[in-house]
């Protein structure tokens, strides 16, 4: 399966307009944003766990990173409330689920295969002081990519011109980019050489962002 697999194109998806699709596990549904591969795939997805649902135990051969958007995600390593950013690199394993239900934004098979840096962070707690109405937290950085979380005040302008492509998920609020409104749940991917220029809406914006990673976008290993 290929979905939004041309990384030279700008892609904007309002995830609330995408139909939920059942996963192989009862009570776990997903909205696919981009994908290369079948059930094992290089994938960017929003996943919804119904209350008391659980996914089977598995090892992340290609790594996994996710943000908890609402509810509480759980596994044998602990409870992960909304606003948590988690990196589970290649070779890590867990049995994910949620007693109360939750929604996560998850990226699979997008790690350096030698990465072993596993961690969790409260994104808001990592924010630095605001400059010109924009407060930014650097959640992770390596030679392949940089991951950030940002709060924009109402009307604030933000310009990012990192090499290697830009991808973002709107956590809350609104922004204008390229004459289009991004709202809660909107997912934007800009190709290499296309800078991000946005203006926050009247309620500001909360944004997760990854840059530099698109040149490394490949299908999962066989």
Automatic annotation (TrEMBL):
Q: Where does the ChrR-like cupin domain start and stop, copy by copy?
A: 9-111
Q: Which domain of life is it from?
A: Bacteria
Matches recorded under Pfam families: Cupin_7
| InterPro entries (alphabetical) | ChrR-like_cupin_dom (IPR025979), RmlC-like_jellyroll (IPR014710), RmlC_Cupin_sf (IPR011051)
Stated name of the protein: Cupin
Task: Please tell me the species this chain comes from.
Answer: Pontivivens nitratireducens
